Amino acid sequence: MDCIFCKIVDGEVPTELIAENEHAIAFLDLYPQAPVHILVVPKIHSENILQLDNSSSLNGLFELIRKVAATKTDGQFKLQFNSGKREGQSVFHTHAHILSEQSN
Ligand code: 5GP
Ligand code: ZN
User: Fold this and answer.
1) Three-state secondary structure string covering the chain
2) Which residues form ligand 1's pocket by a CB distance below 6 Å?
3) Mean predicted confidence (pLDDT) in 26-47
4) What is the pTM of this model?
5) Residues whose beta carbons lie less than 5 angstroms from ion ligand 2
6) Domains annotated on the chain, with CATH
7) Which of 22, 38, 56, 73 could be stapled to 77 by a disulfide with Cβ–Cβ 3.0 to 4.6 Å?
């Protein structure tokens, strides 16, 4: 399977790592749409959040989202999961966008 985010998780493709835990990693978006634009990605592959039904992975993903949002933004941010091609998803490995006008 040719999945760019699986390759980032496996260390095959370099990235600006922000944080990680057992179940997820956070890294800078390559084409930032806001002053803070961080992607948070579960380590196991799933196409989108509807397909991610592993409760440990979901828990780890949201723990990392909360930690990164708390430490890398001023506490005001957008959290977005584009799901499906029509709704703007271009990488088909579940990911959350954390977007903010102000870093911490
Ligand atoms: P989507 O459009 O699927 O919601 O979001 C995918 C995001 O991944 C986009 O914001 C895009 O800029 C980012 N992206 C695509 N390829 C890479 C990559 O190789 N490295 C990083 N860090 N971000 C990427
Ligand atoms: Zn993947």
Assistant:
1) CCCHHHHHHCCCCCCCEEEECCCEEEEECCCCCCCEEEEEEECCCCCCCCCCCCHHHHHHHHHHHHHHHHHHECCCCEEECCCCHHHCCCCCCCCEEEEECCEC
2) 4, 15, 27-31, 39, 82, 88-91
3) 98
4) 0.98
5) 3, 5-6, 45, 93
6) 4-100 (3.30.428.10)
7) 73
In percent, the amount of the chain with pLDDT more than 70 equals 100
Ligand number nearest CA of 97 is 1
Among all residues, which ones are annotated catalytic? 95
Average pLDDT over residues 53-70: 98
Q: For atom 20 of ligand 1, which residue has the closest CA?
A: 30
